[in-house]
Amino acid sequence: MLEKSQASGSGRPGATSPETLGAIRVPVLLLRGARTSRWFSESVAHVAGQLPDATTRQISGAAHFGPVTHARAVADEMIRFFSRIHATTGSRPATGREPV
Question: What is the domain range of residue 51?
Answer without folding.
Answer: 16-89
